[in-house]
């Protein structure tokens, strides 16, 4: 979604002037149009509208590594957040939850960015500096049953206090959770007592939520280790379980293995997992490896009212978000898979972070160095993360691609109808190419 910004405004005012400088530096095609400011005071409704526009804008630019690594751009966005919500810079107490619901209160400034708050939480917990990069802060919505629905990972350019308080609802919380996907990195974290406790608390919580798939026998073994307070042994067993360390999304709809199929999507271990329940309550799972995704994109649309036209004065339909990725199902055969979910942008960010992690590992880097460090009063991205370049933009997909003719073995019991490709009205700039994409042969399926 793009918003126009008048030329007169772009040259005046703090945020507007920065937007003009950034457009000049990066070009209008790279930098999306910034939500315009108004010359007069905003009403509460207009403040909320601008907050929503700014949030969509931040989620959109997060998917561009070039902009995400620009301190000029991040500083511009931080000022825009404060200006929009009219929040003065002052010291406040901010509540951050651990995965088990434990509350951590930290004293921060309203203008503190995500790294500042993360460092404050780590200091309060006595987590060593070299382990901070293994964890991130997430904005979640607490549902009626106490479960967390993940809204997004808080980014470098966000002000956590402003982000959570601007939503004006007690449902929204900030949660600390590990930020990496490869369980091999657990060894680094488990060497430290605080790191071990954080991993343990998260794993116990994920098992209780049903995010990690556990058999009755495995559950009995885990319970025994829990009673003995054998945390490392507990985690070693948990690492062998399906969906360990995955992030689960709310129930949604996909066009795989057939149109309008209700699924539950989980992200982790360099894959997206789609779980569906077949007639007879049989649970099936389709796994889509990140290394087999040629590209992906997020699109949004507003469904028209029945009749096909919108009427003046009527409320607009709710925005529908879709994540579509082109997947190598067999040698030389690509298939588009589309997931319709309000959390589509969060899914896309998870895909990008999994690709980033794979590329860092391939280059011999370490996620221990992926934390942005404060040097001389400014933030600098480490050399290992700078090496992760943005994938090249690929051509818009061909809508006439032949539909998939066979299922992966995990979904062999599901009958498959022809599945059409998503519409191709998106430009090439909306498509995320994947540097981690690898060709496969039929024998690999």
Automatic annotation (TrEMBL):
This is Sorting nexin-17. Transmembrane segments: none annotated. It comes from Callithrix jacchus (White-tufted-ear marmoset). Signal peptide: none annotated. Monomer. Interacts with APP (via cytoplasmic YXNPXY motif). Interacts with KIF1B. Interacts with the C-termini of P-selectin, PTC, LDLR, VLDLR, LRP1 and LRP8. Interacts with KRIT1 (via N-terminus). Interacts with HRAS. Interacts with ITGB1 and ITGB5 (via NPxY motif). Interacts with CCDC22 and CCDC93; the interaction associates SNX17 with the CCC complex. Interacts (via C-terminus) with VPS26C and VPS35L; the interactions are direct and associate SNX17 with the retriever complex. Keywords: Cytoplasm, Cytoplasmic vesicle, Endosome, Lipid-binding, Membrane, Protein transport, Transport. One of its GO terms (molecular function) is phosphatidylinositol binding. GO terms for biological process: endocytic recycling; intracellular protein transport; signal transduction. It comes from the Eukaryota. Residues 90-181 form the Ras-associating domain. It is found in: Cytoplasmic vesicle membrane; Early endosome. It is a peripheral membrane protein. InterPro entries: PH-like_dom_sf, PX_dom, PX_dom_sf, RA_dom, SNX17-31_FERM_F1, SNX17-31_FERM_F2, SNX17/31_FERM, SNX17_FERM-like_dom. GO terms for cellular component: cytoplasmic vesicle membrane; early endosome.
């Amino acid at each position: 979604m793009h918003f126009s910004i008048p030329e007169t405004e772009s040259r005046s005012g703090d945020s507007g002037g920065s937007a003009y400088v950034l457009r000049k530096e990066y070009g209008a095609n790279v930098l999306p149009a910034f939500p315009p400011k108004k010359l007069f005071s905003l009403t509460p409704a207009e403040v909320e509208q601008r907050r929503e526009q700014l949030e969509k804008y931040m989620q959109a630019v997060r998917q561009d590594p070039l902009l995400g690594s620009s301190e000029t751009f991040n500083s511009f966005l931080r000022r825009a957040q404060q200006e929009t919500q009219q929040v003065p810079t002052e010291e406040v107490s901010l509540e951050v939850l651990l995965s088990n619901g434990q509350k951590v209160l930290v004293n921060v400034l309203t203008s503190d960015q995500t790294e500042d708050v993360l460092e404050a939480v780590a200091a309060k917990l006595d987590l060593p500096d070299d382990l901070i990069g293994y964890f991130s802060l997430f904005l979640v919505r607490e549902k009626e049953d106490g479960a967390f629905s993940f809204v997004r990972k808080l980014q470098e350019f966000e002000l956590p206090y402003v982000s959570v308080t601007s939503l004006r609802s007690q449902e929204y919380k900030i949660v600390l959770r590990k930020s990496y996907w490869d369980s091999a990195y657990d060894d680094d974290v488990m060497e430290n007592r605080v790191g071990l406790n954080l991993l343990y608390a998260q794993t116990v919580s994920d098992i209780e939520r049903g995010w990690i798939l556990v058999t009755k026998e495995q559950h009995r073994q885990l319970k025994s280790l829990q009673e003995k307070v054998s945390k490392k042994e507990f985690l070693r067993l948990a690492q062998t379980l399906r969906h360990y360390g995955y992030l689960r999304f709310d129930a949604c709809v996909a066009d795989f293995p057939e149109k309008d199929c209700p699924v539950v999507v989980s992200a982790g271990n360099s894959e997206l997992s789609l779980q569906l329940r077949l007639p007879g309550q049989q649970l099936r799972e389709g796994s889509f490896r990140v290394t087999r995704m040629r590209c992906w994109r997020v699109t949004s649309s507003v469904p028209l009212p029945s009749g096909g036209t919108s009427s003046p004065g009527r409320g607009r339909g709710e925005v529908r978000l879709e994540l579509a990725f082109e997947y190598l199902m067999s040698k030389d055969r690509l298939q588009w898979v589309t997931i319709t979910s309000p959390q589509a942008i969060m899914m896309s960010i998870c895909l990008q972070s999994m690709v980033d992690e794979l590329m860092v590992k391939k280059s011999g880097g370490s996620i221990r160095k992926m934390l942005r460090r404060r040097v001389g009063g400014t933030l600098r991205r480490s050399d290992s993360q700078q090496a992760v370049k943005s994938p090249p933009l690929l051509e818009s997909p061909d809508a006439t691609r032949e539909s998939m003719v066979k299922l992966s073995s995990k979904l062999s019991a599901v009958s498959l109808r022809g599945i059409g490709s998503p519409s191709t009205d998106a430009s090439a700039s909306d498509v995320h190419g994947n540097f981690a994409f690898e060709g496969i042969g039929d024998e690999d399926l």
